[in-house]
Request: fold
Amino acid sequence: MNDLESRQLRYFVAVAEELHFGRAAERLGMAQPPLSRAIRDLERHLGVQLLRRTTREVALTPAGEVLLRDARTALDAIAAAARRAQNAGRPAPALRVALKADYDAGLLPRCIAAYREDPAGRPVEVLLGGRGEQVPALRDGRADVAILPRPFDERGLDLEPLLVEPRLLAIAADDPLAAHTALRLDDLAGRVLPDGGAADRPETVAPHDPRRRSYDLAQLFNLVELGTIVWFLPESVARRHPRSGVAYRPVEELGPSTLCIAWPRDSRDQAVAAFVRAATAVAVEETALAR
Reply:
């Protein structure tokens, strides 16, 4: 059997994610009939059915689910190889650090300063993105290392925990619950989290879908002030963003936030290793000062 082409995988992933040939064709910038033919050709090439098609829906078969998972990995690897080669070929290759703005517990400036003292250090390029964007950036080669809170998809990544800190509830200052100095999860019945989940059952919220809308901090705070949502956030973010329209309260049964540094498991980049050393050393110092 001949090797698969990246074009075939891209076509299949688009259809498998959209579960609709028309939307997939629009996403790919092509007409629907050639896309349908390409998927049928792929199925003949592999000798298995990847999709179940009816007049009402398109669904993945077990073989299709396996191919979708592995095709995403393969396409990310191809994109990563190209982007890492391009970065390495620059006159001054950068170490690209991905994170969500203000989700570094205030450590990033010190991490960069400590890293610059290492002989293996390179210029640092900070890539700010929304929630859930850091892991895809590691996988497709846009970033070399990321600072982000758990939980996230750790497959194919190495990581080191940096800091563990309490999480607080952000709630509108005029909400009756803000009059309490401490709350329980049961008190939050009827309140909604940014992901759309029930605030009193945060464990039921589905893992973040990178295709779902990601709010920036200003939007989140505005929605909290309006009483549209409540939000669980690390204590360090609350400390750096006092707002008259937002109250921060501890909640019993609410687990802490763990900030990590993560990088691709197959990385052999000495600059990445140097940055990880610097970040962990800074985190140890911060933890000692907090005690």
